[in-house]
Amino acid sequence: MLIDLHSHTKASDGQLTANELVIRAANRQVDMLAITDHDSIDGLAPAQQTITDNNLKLTLINGIEITTNWLNHEIHLVGVNIDPHHPVLTDLIVAQKEKRENRAIEMGLRLEKAKIPGVYEAAKELAGDGAITRAHFARHLVEIGVAPTFQKVFDKYLSRGNTAYVPHHWVELEEAIDVIHQAGGQAILAHPNHYDLSNKWMRRLFTEFKEFNGDAMEVAMGQQSPQMRLQLAMWSEEYGLLASQGSDFHFVGRWRDLGKALHLPDIAKPIWSDWPSYQALAITEEIL
Ligand code: AMP
Ligand code: MN
Ligand code: MN
Ligand code: MN
């Protein structure tokens, strides 16, 4: 069974519409897909509509990826099986979107000072109705040839300490976990190895995440060494966290794809084992 619990649409910085994303997932034989846009739930309803209209064999999990603050680190928190319209979650999304907008304006001003004008407007155009992210800035900066690749644009302009990096006061990790719980969901620490933390700090993050009642951590990602996957699985077990997996799909590329190369090491306890939506699928597979 193919399970992918981390993906993006045009509701944030994904390049496919929700519609296109679920059709791609179904074509790739994904059984269960969570859409987890940055601080947005806007992809969920159109995705479910497409699944229903086309009778796709795909179970959609309502998700979100919230940017949070933990001891001055930007930590991403994935929420799954949320009620997307829970008022506490709605309030958080409104606040985060406003922060994104203010940060984007400030980024634009900094780039203007660096003699690269009009980037805010262009990024806004790329983001459309979706949550504006640094990825939109990066796409435009690559388009106008400021740097050759996405990665180089981040390294030179957009990542911490660089020209257009604007530190921001995102929701606290502990509070975001609580919001996910209030909205009926489970809270997953996203890609723990992407924060440039030493092992010591990583352990501190796992300890506090657990103390904050976090439920799970991502163990399997699309592009990852077997050693890293096993290490994350061991940590999930050590800290009493369930394990999740997801491609973090943003666009069709050479290496990453929906449901691709995702499976958990045996020692990890999958977050989905006791989900009714998963059990229904498991039963169907047994009968077929
Ligand atoms: P934001 O949430 O606005 O800070 O934007 C974060 C998004 O930018 C991430 O979800 C990635 O899609 C992308 N991103 C962040 N850091 C990098 C990086 N170093 N290289 C490439 N893409 C990045
Ligand atoms: Mn992203
Ligand atoms: Mn992330
Ligand atoms: Mn993501």
How would you describe this structure to a colleague?
There is one protein chain. This protein has 288 residues and is α/β, with parallel strands linked by helices. The protein has two domains: 3-85 and 176-287, Metal-dependent hydrolases (TIM Barrel); 93-158, DNA polymerase, domain 1 (Orthogonal Bundle). Helices cover 43% and strands 15% of the residues. It contains ten helices and eight strands. Strands 1, 2, 3, 4, 5, 6, 7 and 8 form an eight-stranded mixed β-sheet that branches. The longest helix has 27 residues, at 87-113. The protein is globular and about 65 Å long.
The total beta strand count reads: 8
CATH topology name of the largest domain, in short, is: TIM Barrel
Structural class: alpha/beta
State mean pLDDT (0 to 100 scale): 97
Helix/strand order: EHEHEEHHHHEHEHEHEH
Largest sheet geometry: 8 strands, mixed
Low-pLDDT sequence parts: none
Overall geometric form? globular
Radius of gyration from the CA trace?
19 Å
Q: Number of folding domains?
A: 2
CATH homology group of the largest domain: Metal-dependent hydrolases
List the helices and strands and how they pair.
Elements (H helix, E strand, L loop, with lengths): L2 E2 L13 H10 L4 E4 L8 H10 L5 E12 L2 E8 L6 H27 L5 H9 L6 H10 L6 H9 L12 E2 H10 L3 E4 L9 H13 L4 E6 L4 H13 L3 E5 L29 H12 L1
Parallel strand pairs: 1-2, 2-3, 3-5, 6-7, 7-8
Antiparallel strand pairs: 3-4, 4-6
Helix pairs in contact: 1-2, 3-4, 4-5, 5-6
Bound molecules: adenosine monophosphate and manganese (II) ion (3 copies).
The site of adenosine monophosphate has 11 residues, from helix 5 and helix 6.
